[in-house]
Amino acid sequence: MASGVILEVENLRVDIPVAAGMLHPVRGIGFSVSRGETLCIVGESGCGKSLTSLAIMGLLPKTAQRTADRMDFLGRDIRHLGEREMARQRGGSMSMIFQEPMTSLNPSYTIGNQLAEVHLRHVGQNRTAARDRAVFLLEKVGISAAASRLGQYPHQLSGGQRQRVMIAMALMCGPELIIADEPTTALDVTIQAQILHLLAELQREFQMGMILITHDLGIVARVADKVQVMYAGKTVEEGPCETVFDAPMHPYTQGLLRCIPIPGLTRRGERLGSVPGIVPNLVGTLSGCMFRNRCDHARDACANMRDEPTHMGDGHAYTCLRAPEEILGERQAAGTP
Amino acid sequence: MTEAALETVDVTCVFQVGQGFLRGSKPLRAVNGVSLKIPRGQVVGLVGESGCGKSTMANILLGLQRPSSGDVLYSGNSAAGFSRRQIARRIQPIFQDPYSSLNPTKTIEAIISQPLRIHNVGAPSEWTARVTEMLDVVGLPRRVAASYPSQLSGGQRQRVAIARALVMRPEVVICDEPTSALDVSVQSQILNLLQDLKEEFGLTYLLISHNLAVVQHMADRVAVMYLGRIVEEADSDALFDDPRHPYTRALLGSVLTPDPRLGVPDTHLGTIFPNPIDPPSGCPFHPRCPNCTDICQSVPPHLVSDGDHETECHLYGGAS
Amino acid sequence: MTNTNATISLMFRQQQTAEDILEPSPWSKLRRRILGNHSFLIGAVILVVIVAVAILAPLLAPHDPYDQDLTKRLTNPFWHEKKIDPDHALGTDKVGRDYLSRLIYGSQISLLIGFSTMLISGVIGTVLGVTAGYFGGRVDMVVNFIINTRLAMPVFLVAMAAVVAFGASLTVVILVLGLFLWDRFAVVMRSITMQARDLDYVKAARAMGCSTPYIIVREIFPNVLSSLTVVATVEMANAILLEAALSFLGFGVQAPTPSWGLMLNEGREYMFFSPWLLALPGVCLFLLVLAINLFGDGLRDVTLERER
Ligand SMILES: Nc1ncnc2c1ncn2[C@@H]1O[C@H](COP(=O)(O)OP(=O)(O)OP(=O)(O)O)[C@@H](O)[C@H]1O
Ligand SMILES: Nc1ncnc2c1ncn2[C@@H]1O[C@H](COP(=O)(O)OP(=O)(O)OP(=O)(O)O)[C@@H](O)[C@H]1O
Ligand code: SF4
Ligand code: SF4
Ligand SMILES: [Mg+2]
Ligand SMILES: [Mg+2]
Fold first, then answer.
1. Nearest alpha carbon to residue B114 among B92, B82, B138
2. Prior bond to B265 cis, omega within 30?
3. Residue B77 sits in which domain range?
4. Do C209 and B155 touch (CB under 8 A)?
5. Residues C190, C133: contact at Cβ < 8 Å?
6. Preferred mutation among C5, C16, C21 to probe B, highest tally of B CBs within 10 A
7. Which of B188, B256, B271 is opposite residue A272, by nearest beta carbon?
8. Which of A157, A189, A265 to mutate to test the interface with B (most CBs of B within 10 A)?
9. Which residue of B has its CA nearest to C197?
10. Which atom of ligand 4 is nearest to the CA of B292?
11. What does the pLDDT read at residue A184?
12. Do the Cβ atoms of C215 and C196 come closer than 8 Å?
């Protein structure tokens, strides 16, 4: 995918002052997204996925502080853009799909109004043009009788339909980058598959970059080009999707993959793997590998580990003390990935 | 097949749903003529999309919701012969949301011992011992007894809910989406625990879930629900190897196994969502069904059995 | 399952949850939040002082609040130069009663009215609200109708009418206010109970075979208690102000009872020459109502955070 990087982020940090001290929910995240590429960010609840996406969109809560060594969107540094400039980017060349379709559509305006609004604000053409685009996109996202739907209110649609409307809204201004934060978590499996299928198709068609946030490894495997596994505010492993799934290097990634029952692979009643323990508290000064209280391979040195990723080539990297030989040797001994 | 611990016979549950101001109410058939057998010692999975009536079924089985018609049989005896408390001793629930299933103002000890107090089991002096025992059983450290739910993680709370359900040694546990609010790493712990407890206490489970991978992992028999009806029911292997109803097929086709070499499947399902108040004529699935034929639009299919494999679809049996 | 097997699986399970208790207990958190909430603390301190004054009134008051001394009418409080009486620090009123003592005893009346009204209206409103919220359907419709009927009645006018009809006395004022100020209790309790009813722990209690009264009292009530206290403070302040207003207009507590509202009324004539006769009971009322409101607001912040 040589065709142009859309977004490049380096060492993104978010700090939020809370009653108990300073919370560090995002502690140095970096990634890049190219045209037509899907980056999946996966991780446990509370590991900072949503805050990462909000930080890019400039939508962090008021009290949160953001710092980054680099945040280039379409070649432009967006770290110091004012609120008004950011608002122009949002919904224009960069748009977001949230998890809850119910709360992210305004219940008191019709679908048509809300779709046209976005278009008028960013593109500023006339109403007819906005309306035409709304109908075009509603059809595109698989809503039947699109023209007649414009007059409906969000509550008159099903959850799946609402999420489709959200997608249409995100596409209204032909964005270069879509950030989708758990876009299907609230939906049924059949509808989830439909929506993801749709997103993948639209992305290919319009050659957009996409950041998809999820905690479902099934979705990641099926949709992602690149994967970023987050734990406690840090990237613990990243790389091309196939490589990460075939040869996970970090103990956390390995643990996650062992946890899920896979039809056809895990036998009924068989014990599933697990990652015992819980996510550590991210308040105050933190040092070393934050996974060490849950890690089977933890050793003393892990408490002083510095974040230097081990590169495996091809963009695959993991942040753990264990040497690649050790992990690979173990995998060979076990005979399974 | 072994004897049924729990069975529903043609149960229907109708809610009157208000249509808004001054517009009266209309009947909503949340459960529409369902007969389901839960054999003793087995795990029956119940799957289907949101709003198809799974939780209503659970409520009926727990005796919390009186069916509009039909009967529930406990070990073969009609529900009419049982009081709520008698039902409570046989059947206990585990709910989805570990954050709302525990009373935030009570300690863990009070929560787990509550069934004992309600049913006057044993002397109050024995309750603490029972609670400790249950904490061990579900793998919680004993010191949580004095804590409050807000001090525990989601997985720990779900363990407390399981301890509360099991303290009276029920025969059947109805698990309504027991792991869907949990992270995958915690989900596997809870599934393992449910698996162990089943062996240890000889339990029977009804496992409601929309995660088919979980259902396949746990269930011996699976029933697929659509719009208040069971449209397919079979032994787990048969159902997953040879899904028959188009909805079951779409459902299985939608399971996203973590295989990076595959893309997102196209389920070929329509997007028209059925309105449960005004269900489609004929086969309720016909507006979304890729195999829909003329007869489907007017004549409702009926259940056709092929051994243990029951399907309700015109593709598998002539209409009457 | 054999014994060893069971032990192994047990050990395995415990090792699985080798996780700590996440948080400090809700009570210690509550305590910390209370100590960090200034409005709650200030309100609580003033309130405690006023309640203490009311209880200890016989000890604190230098004089009998009813004792008239026509030779010492309208003496000035201590900060004046002329016409002060060392016996009466805050001066005397038009019939020579010690103003400080009357103010001190006045706190009893205000608190008594506020508290009893809150109790009566609280019981009525909570019973109605919780019943409507828990049972819903037809019961809810009836209760809603009662609430709306009540809301359509002007409290103040009805109270004045009742005083005219039954004669003015403390009991009548308390009863009238108590029987009228329950609407907010009912509305709030109804909506909170409705939410609580659908929570899974209530469903779990039903599945356990608990009776309906048990569920309402033991499962739902403790969880609506914090909201109930907040409404109670609002209603208490409301009742105190209403009593003052009624007394001021002559429809409330009757002379010679030392009520702050009545004292405001009596001081009205001397507004220009002896403004403290008006100002002092006014300040007392203001402080009491402010304290209750600060306390209630703080309580809401403190407990809302707890529920999050
Ligand atoms: N406004 C805020 N104030 C304080 N802490 C916050 C705030 N927003 C988020 N956090 C904390 O930051 C951490 C990361 O939150 P975030 O929402 O990014 O998690 P997430 O990975 O998206 O989790 P989930 O999968 O549950 O959505 C969490 O511990 C959360 O409690
Ligand atoms: N008390 C009620 N009054 C009216 N309608 C109800 C009531 N309870 C459930 N319903 C309706 O009955 C249908 C079935 O609901 P149910 O909760 O059983 O679905 P479900 O399969 O459990 O869905 P989910 O997967 O979302 O939990 C829904 O259309 C719902 O709106
Ligand atoms: S650094 Fe140590 S504790 Fe962290 S993942 Fe690697 S081995 Fe485990
Ligand atoms: S009966 Fe017809 S419409 Fe219904 S599922 Fe079968 S083929 Fe599809
Ligand atoms: Mg999130
Ligand atoms: Mg449900």
1. B92
2. no
3. 4-229
4. no
5. yes
6. C21
7. B188
8. A189
9. B100
10. 3
11. 83
12. no
**C276: its two tokens:** 């403290």
Distance CA A59, CA A90 (A): 10
Interface test with A, best of C17, C30, C35, C37 (most A CBs within 10 A): C17
B201-239 pLDDT per residue, tens:
999 999 999 888 999 999 999 999 999 999 999 999 999
List ligand 3's pocket residues with C-beta within 6 A: A 251, 289, 291-292, 295, 297-298, 302, 305, 320-322
Domain ranges within chain A, ordered by starting residue: 5-334
What is the residue type of B49? E
Report the CATH number that the domain containing residue B135 is assigned in CATH.
3.40.50.300
pLDDT (tens digit per residue) in A243-296? 999 999 999 999 999 988 888 788 887 888 888 877 788 888 888 899 988 888
Q: In this prediction, what percent of chain A has a pLDDT beyond 70?
A: 97
Mention every residue, 6+ apart, whose C-beta is less than 8 A from residue C20: none
Rounded Cα distance between A3 and C285, Å, is 74
Burial of C286 (0-12, 13-18, 19+ CB in 10 A): exposed
| Residues of chain A contacting residue B214, judged by C-beta atoms under 8 Å apart | 261
In the numeric block, which tokens belong to residue A319?
């942040």
What span, in angstroms and rounded, lies between the C-alpha atoms of A300 and A279?
19
Put simply, the chain B residues between 72 and 101 with a CB less than 8 A from any chain A CB are none
* Percent of chain B clearing pLDDT 90 (strictly above): 57
* Residue pointed to by tokens 């409050």: B148
- Give C171-226 pLDDT, tens digit per residue: 888 998 999 899 999 999 999 898 888 889 999 999 998 999 999 998 998 888 88
Q: Please tell me the distance from the alpha carbon of residue B231 to that of residue B303, in angstroms, as a whole number.
A: 8
Residue among C201, C209, C306 whose CB faces B119 most closely: C209
Question: What spacing in Å lies between the alpha carbon of A49 and ligand 5's midpoint?
Answer: 6
Nearest to A274 among B185, B236, B253 (CB): B185
Domains annotated for chain C, with CATH where assigned, are 28-61+87-307 (1.10.3720.10)
- Contact criterion met (CB below 8 Å) for A42 and A93: no
| Domain assignment present for B181 | yes
From the CA of C10, how many Å to the nearest CA of chain A? 14
Q: Which of A192, A246, A274 sits opposite B254 (nearest CB)?
A: A192
Ligand 1 pocket at CB < 6 A? A 16, 18, 23, 25, 43, 45-51, 61, 215
Using DSSP, state whether A283 is helix, strand or coil.
strand
Question: Which amino acid is it at A337?
Answer: P
B310 within domain boundaries: no
Interval B158-185: pLDDT, tens: 999 999 999 999 999 999 999 888 888 8
Task: State the total domains in chain B.
Answer: 1
CA A90 to chain CA centroid, nearest Å: 16
What spacing in Å lies between the alpha carbon of B28 and ligand 2's midpoint?
9
Q: Is the CB of B292 under 6 A from ligand 4?
A: yes
- Tell me the ipTM for this assembly: 0.85
Residue A294: how many other CB atoms lie within 10 Å: 21
Q: Decide whether any atom of ligand 2 lies within 6 Å of the B30 Cβ.
A: yes
Beta bridge partners of B72: B8
pLDDT tens digits for C146-171? 999 999 988 888 888 888 888 888 88
Which residue type does B75 have?
A: S
- Region A5-334: CATH code: 3.40.50.300
Neighbours of C51 (CB within 10 A): 16
* Residue B162 forms part of a structural domain: yes
* Closest to C204 (Cα-Cα) out of B165, B205, B113, B60: B165
Give the N- to C-terminal CA distance of chain C in Å, as an integer: 43
B243 belongs to a structural domain: no
Closest CA relative to residue A211, chosen from A222, A197, A227? A227
Interchain proximity A276–C22, CB inside 8 Å = no
CB of C40 closer than 8 Å to CB of C295: yes
